[in-house]
Amino acid sequence: MLDSRAICDTCGHTRDWHDRDTVRARLRSDPPVERPCYREVGGAPCRCGGFRESGTFATPAGSQEKRGPEVRSRWLQNGILTLLLVVMGVALLYAYRSQTPSLPQVALSQALQDIGAGLVRAVTVTGNRATLEFRDNPTHKEQTTLPEPDTVLALAVSDYNTAHPSQPIELRYEQGSQTVGVIGSIVLSLLPVFLIGGFFYYMMRMRRSS
């Protein structure tokens, strides 16, 4: 059975414009003088000399039949891009974590015992956190949480320095670095979510515009 949607490679019109009975049913009247194509172009009869099928079929606007392969290809590209964004986000987070390793957390009572025993070389206070650096190994560090205001740890360091002036513990105070580190960690943790959300928002805008 001939498909009326087949397109002529001579004039570009569908097959039904070349069939007199089909045109009569469409116009509800007899078509003009007998000719191969009853379609008019710019008010003038089509100059097509006869139907020659091109292998292409006309489909309604927005038809999934025509756009099926394109839609599947687009979904495949979107999936690959989404996976790439996730991998990039995880890689950035891993790189940040590897550069700033987390310190073991100890109770304040344990930190005071280490200070009193002379195991600590230096104490760095940032906000409500104190980082203890040990004498046995420069890379040996621990962290503890301080009460606000701190009336315990600073006094313990002062008492130890008074009792052991030959091996004092260095007490340092820093501002802002810990806050920046926490904010950076949070931002990098949420970066994959932001990237994926922005990507899907962009794809929705593109789909609406098309």
Give short descriptive properties of this protein.
single chain, 210 residues, alpha+beta, Signal recognition particle alu RNA binding heterodimer, srp9/1, 3 domains, four-stranded mixed beta sheet, two-stranded antiparallel ribbon, 46% helix, 17% strand
In short:
This protein has 210 residues and is an alpha+beta fold. The chain contains five helices and eight strands.
Question: Can you give a write-up of this model?
Answer:
With about 210 residues, the chain is α+β, with helices and mostly antiparallel strands. It has three domains: about 5-55, no CATH class; about 65-100 and about 180-210; about 110-175, Signal recognition particle alu RNA binding heterodimer, srp9/1 (2-Layer Sandwich). Helix content is about 45%, strand content about 15%. A four-stranded mixed sheet has the order 7-6-5-8, with helices on one face. It has a two-stranded antiparallel sheet with strand order 1-4. It has a two-stranded antiparallel ribbon with strand order 2-3. Strand 6 (about 130-135) and strand 7 (about 140-145) form a beta hairpin. Helix 2 packs antiparallel against helix 5. The longest helix is centred in the middle third of the chain and has 36 residues, at about 65-100. It is rod-shaped. It starts with 5 loop residues before the first strand and ends with a helix. The model has no long low-confidence stretch (mean pLDDT about 80).
